[in-house]
Design a protein that fits this description.
Length: 92
């Protein structure tokens, strides 16, 4: 679960305390996602099944290249945009 976050530390501008912060945020976000999927929110969010949400390696290479060229703020912004895009594209 932490491997992709640990790979992101390869961004040369990240100090050790920011890598530790990323690992902590990763664990918190996976826990929140697990609760949302397991318990659900409202009528249409969450599958309401006993699941554990983890992470994917699909974003590691783009995150490293984005972070190397543009910095950690752009990495966070691209992650936020990617996470919110399904809600924007969803048909109500």
């Amino acid at each position: 679960m932490l491997k992709h976050t640990i790979f992101v530390h390869e961004i040369p501008t990240l100090p050790k305390h920011q890598v530790a912060m990323l690992i902590n945020e990763n664990l918190i976000c996976c826990g929140i996602a697990t609760l949302i999927q397991s318990l659900g929110i409202g009528k249409g969010i969450g599958i309401r099944l006993p699941v554990m949400m983890g992470v994917s390696f699909a974003a590691v290479t783009p995150l490293i290249s984005i972070g190397t060229e543009s910095g950690i703020r752009v990495v966070f912004g691209s992650i936020i945009a990617a996470e919110l895009s399904p809600f924007w594209l969803r048909r109500w």
